[in-house]
């Protein structure tokens, strides 16, 4: 049990790194599942480029948007940006820090997808096969003899489809050439992403650490404050409902006893029941009416309290 507790505390303290790793693993698994299926290129000049480039751009955009949707801090950022100022000022640096943190995590999955797709090379082959000069690669100058430009482009578009291209040796040579170029682009993309991440990590300590720590602290405070406010509202709603139901049943039972003319007898309740009743009453925090609770929620949204604690 202690090992599970230590593991949970470790994951909780390194939540950001853990979630980044989970996003990367999910993107890598989805890309591997995609490459395990048979790649079906249209092998038509009108659609090859659109289909191939679409596989390089549309899934990363979807992963990027999904990263924003699955991040709980997006709602915190939106609420902090749109809320009325009230007694608490809004700091633009905190909003920028939260947005950069969300964007950084959301970019992991698209980067993994683009890298794996470029390393695989199938979509790159489908997109750029019509731009290939087979005469320079294979040295077969008689392949396009007597063909018009439209027939030549149509033949090049069939290179990704092995069942539509007759000369397999030429197809293998052209496929290897384009896939090597795609893998080179993939390594360049990985190098660029790694260099960018390194520069961000290296340049950050050059700025004022006090301002960075202040921004990081208050961004964590906003997130924790929202979670604790939601938990307090849930506890209050649970206690409010429990007390209302208890009073309802006590009132109904009193009416029934008075209707039948039974004498009401009082019994000493147990200590545990009395403690539970007191705890439920304390969780109401003095708010015992619907209008009062609506006023509290409205004031929390329109005029948050200032960050200055009273003694």
TrEMBL record:
It comes from the Eukaryota. The keyword Transport applies. It is found in: Membrane. One of its GO terms (cellular component) is plasma membrane. Pfam families: Ca_hom_mod. The chain crosses the membrane at residues 21-37, 49-69, 184-203. Residues 261-281 are annotated as: Disordered. It is a multi-pass membrane protein. Its main location: membrane. This is Calcium homeostasis modulator 1. Belongs to the CALHM family. GO terms for molecular function: monoatomic cation channel activity. GO terms for biological process: ATP export. Keywords: Ion channel, Ion transport, Membrane, Transmembrane, Transmembrane helix, Transport. The keyword Transmembrane applies.
